[in-house]
Amino acid sequence: MTEPVKPGQGTTPAPVETSSDAATLQLLVQLLLAERQQALEERQDRQRAEKARNEQRKINAEHAIAEKNKSQAMCSHKKGGTGVKSPKVDYAVYAHTFTDNVAYIRCQICGAKWRRLDTAEFLFRKGEKIPNHTRIGWAEALKMLAESTNTPSSSEVQMAAQPIGATVADLE
């Protein structure tokens, strides 16, 4: 017959397997590191793709600007199209004045703009001096404006008095 087991005697608890827990912990750490590495690689791939897209956007923008400059350089800035030509020259340009009294002259065909500081050699844009692809400065644009039947435009502003009509001479 077996003797009854008294508390504190007999069966001993199973020893804790430290090697199994350490291996599980090591495996968990490796999985976490692999996950972090994969996230890092995905982020780097996205950054490379974004950089490539930005480079292509820059190339596309430069090409669009070059095409626009080319069409503006070839434009005659004259009304009339391909039909019978009138003996009178009528340029397709108009003057626009903003509320702060800054003005420019713009071609309605190609969209070229000329401002007060522009010369036949250089255009002044955003504080920078760039080559003038149209070879037309402010003085030449004023001459074209004098030979145009277009009326000037302006931005709207609340005025307390009656506006004074502007002429080509006022723009000089």
**Mass-distribution shape:** elongated
Cα Rg: 38 Å
User: Helix coverage percent of residues?
Assistant: 40-55%
How many strands, what sense, and barrel or not for the largest sheet? 4 strands, mixed
Q: What is the terminal separation in angstroms?
A: 126 Å
Average residue pLDDT: 86
Number of strand segments: 6
Short description:
With 172 residues, the chain is an alpha+beta fold. It has helices spanning 18-74, 138-146, 168-171; strands spanning 93-97, 103-107, 113-115, 122-125, 128-131, 153-154.
Structure, explained:
The chain contains 3 helices and 6 strands. It is elongated. The chain has helices at 18-74, 138-146, 168-171, and strands spanning 93-97, 103-107, 113-115, 122-125, 128-131, 153-154. The longest helix is centred in the first third of the chain and has 57 residues, at 18-74. The N and C termini lie far apart (126 Å). Helix content is 41%, strand content 13%.
